[in-house]
């Protein structure tokens, strides 16, 4: 039996696009001699559809698309994911399911049991967990078909009634197939390989796993579909961050033509780079946008975002706006101009001195007798926000936010100023990782100016200002933030690791009290195991400071 895995980039709710892409790859798999082609979890509607699932018409369009797809499965069979209605009156209205289609008809339906309800996942909001499981019979073989989490064996939730593979293995299947929508984080590919390998070894069955690729707003899918033998050895690993269709010949319990291999090695920073490029590109393509604008300060954060945007969209589609203040240094302007020269994007220089002075003069009587402080600094940042938003409105550019995760975490940013934007490009990238990205981008030649990398970071909103005036050293700050945000460690636990008591408590308080700002920021491209946004939901008025 020849089985094709179709690792594709879908578009949520774009039924015409998704259906055509699936049908085209059915034909491609057929031309390549496949007997069965396998598509990803909820491929027909895209993942995650969220509250689109509450629209009856949306579910109807999924079924209409499935029937159109079925009409093309006459010589070849397919497995494709979609939401299906729960015809029983009890429970949720829908199942997260997959159709097995053969000879133009739906011959079997597999339903997902282990519904993830953590981090970015909220499937139990919409779906009823399956309780009955049947193998698919095709060409005299039995296939144990599961959907994503059903092979992660997470049974610590009382909603999870049973493990599907423990039931399916009783029917003596010949092969496991798992269809997934497994989001990217820079450590998830290693975990994924281990978990799936353990399943193949546990059940003594070869395993084919297909993931989707592409970005859906903040969530990025990295592909990396996999094949394992019955001993849990990795046999093959499909492309990461790219679409691909690949055919595997399965004879008995052997995937032919492959010998065990080692999981490919790629650094965290390389993965983050590719994910961010894909995230920017898909945000624009799927939203119908073409051109981006950003404020370019001469610092490392905006330089990185500009370089990523040029890679994703083409330099001709990126507008960098330099907005020097009366406190900006000459080298910052030159650093920004050097970057523009290196990457070839468009640029404008629009000083904010006159605008900031005008606001200062307007507020002079109200602020009479009060010293210059954060208020005047924020006015400058908001002047810049007005300018880049004006460029966005006038020319149809989409504004890219350039704040990093360290800043987002502690609230080191100005609402309606430098926190403006339609998408947060590096809001899930710590400052120390931003520097690593700079060196990675420069690996084949200077793109990010050296001075942008080595100079002390500064917002340049007052004379001689440096980030270190307000924040701990980033090397220390990021380590404490990682412990608190990604690892969810308490202050006492972090202090026990040797960090200064007062510093830890100060940082955690800054993170918690900045929550109101993060509620008003753009969606952030997710590259870590715990990003700000839908995967980390904290109360604004909560008292708990850990």
Task: Quickly list its features.
546 residues; alpha/beta; seven-stranded mixed sheet; 16 helices; 35% helix; 18% strand; elongated
What is the compact description of this entry?
By secondary structure, this protein is of the alpha/beta class. It contains 16 helices and 20 strands. A 7-stranded mixed β-sheet has the order 5-4-3-2-1-14-15, with helices on one face. The protein has a 6-stranded mixed β-sheet with strand order 6-7-8-9-12-13. It has a 5-stranded parallel β-sheet with strand order 18-17-16-19-20, with helices on both faces.
List the helices and strands and how they pair.
Elements lengths: L1 E6 L7 H17 L4 E3 L17 H15 L6 E9 L8 E9 L2 E7 L24 E3 L2 E7 L16 H5 L6 E5 L8 H16 L3 E4 L2 E4 L2 E4 L3 E3 L5 E4 L6 E8 L2 E2 L12 H20 L4 E4 L4 H14 L4 E5 L7 H14 L2 E4 L3 H10 L11 H22 L2 E4 L3 H6 L12 E2 L6 H11 L8 H5 L19 H12 L5 H6 L4 H13 L1 H4 L28
Parallel strand pairs: 1-2, 2-3, 7-8, 8-9, 16-17, 16-19, 17-18, 19-20
Antiparallel strand pairs: 1-14, 3-4, 4-5, 6-7, 9-12, 10-11, 12-13, 14-15
Structure description:
This protein is of the alpha/beta class. Helices cover 35% and strands 18% of the residues. The protein has helices spanning 15-31, 56-70, 164-168, 188-203, 268-287, 300-313, 330-343, 353-362, 374-395, 405-410, 431-441, 450-454, 474-485, 491-496, 501-513, 515-518; strands at residues 2-7, 36-38, 77-85, 94-102, 105-111, 136-138, 141-147, 175-179, 207-210, 213-216, 219-222, 226-228, 234-237, 244-251, 254-255, 292-295, 318-322, 346-349, 398-401, 423-424. A hairpin with a 2-residue loop joins strand 14 (244-251) and strand 15 (254-255). The longest helix is centred in the last third of the chain and has 22 residues, at 374-395.
């Amino acid at each position: 039996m020849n089985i094709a895995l179709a690792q594709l980039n879908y578009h949520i709710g774009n039924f015409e696009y998704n259906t055509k892409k699936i049908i085209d790859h059915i034909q491609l798999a057929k031309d390549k001699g496949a007997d069965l082609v396998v598509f990803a979890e909820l491929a027909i509607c895209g993942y995650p559809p969220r509250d689109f699932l509450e629209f009856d018409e949306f579910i109807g369009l999924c079924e209409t698309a499935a029937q159109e797809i079925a009409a093309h499965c006459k010589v070849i069979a397919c497995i494709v994911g979609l939401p299906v209605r729960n015809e029983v009156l009890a429970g949720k209205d829908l199942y997260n399911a997959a159709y097995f289609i053969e000879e133009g008809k739906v011959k079997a339906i597999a339903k997902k049991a282990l519904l993830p309800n953590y981090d970015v996942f909220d499937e139990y909001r919409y779906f009823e967990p399956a309780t009955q499981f049947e193998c698919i019979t095709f060409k005299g073989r039995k296939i144990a078909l599961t959907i994503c989490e059903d092979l992660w064996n997470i049974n610590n939730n009382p909603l999870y009634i049973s493990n599907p593979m423990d039931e399916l293995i009783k029917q003596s299947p010949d092969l496991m197939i798992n269809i997934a929508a497994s989001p990217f984080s820079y450590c998830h590919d290693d975990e994924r390989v281990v978990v799936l390998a353990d399943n193949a070894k546990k059940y003594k069955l070869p395993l084919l796993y297909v993931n989707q690729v592409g970005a859906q707003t903040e969530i990025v899918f990295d592909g990396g579909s996999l094949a394992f033998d019955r001993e849990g050895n990795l046999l093959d690993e499909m492309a990461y961050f790219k679409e691909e269709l690949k055919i595997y010949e399965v004879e008995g319990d052997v995937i032919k033509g492959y010998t065990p291999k080692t999981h490919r090695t790629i650094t965290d920073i390389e993965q983050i780079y590719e994910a961010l490029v894909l995230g920017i590109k898909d945000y624009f393509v799927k939203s119908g946008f073409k051109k981006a604008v950003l404020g370019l300060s001469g610092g490392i954060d905006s330089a990185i975002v500009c370089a990523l945007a040029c890679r994703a969209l083409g330099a001709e589609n990126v507008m960098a706006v330099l907005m020097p203040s009366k406190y900006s240094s000459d080298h910052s302007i030159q650093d920004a101009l050097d970057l523009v020269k290196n990457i070839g994007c468009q640029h404008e220089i629009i000083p904010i001195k006159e605008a900031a002075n005008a606001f200062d003069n307007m507020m002079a009587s109200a602020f009479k007798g009060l010293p210059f402080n954060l208020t005047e600094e924020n006015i400058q940042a908001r002047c810049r926000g007005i300018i880049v938003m004006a460029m966005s409105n006038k020319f149809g550019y989409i504004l890219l936010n350039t704040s990093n995760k360290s800043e987002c975490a502690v609230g080191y940013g100005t609402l309606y100023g430098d926190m403006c934007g339609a998408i947060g490009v590096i809001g899930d990238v710590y400052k120390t990782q931003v520097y690593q990205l700079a060196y990675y981008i420069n690996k084949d030649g200077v793109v990010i100016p050296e001075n942008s990398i080595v100079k002390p970071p500064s917002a340049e909103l007052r004379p001689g200002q440096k980030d270190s005036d307000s924040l701990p050293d980033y090397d220390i700050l990021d380590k404490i933030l990682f412990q608190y945000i990604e690892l969810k460690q308490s202050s006492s636990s972090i202090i026990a690791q040797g960090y200064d008591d007062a510093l830890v408590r100060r940082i955690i308080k800054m993170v918690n009290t900045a929550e109101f700002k993060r509620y008003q920021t753009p969606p952030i491209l997710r590259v870590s195991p715990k990003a700000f946004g839908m995967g980390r939901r904290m109360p604004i008025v909560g008292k708990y400071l850990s």
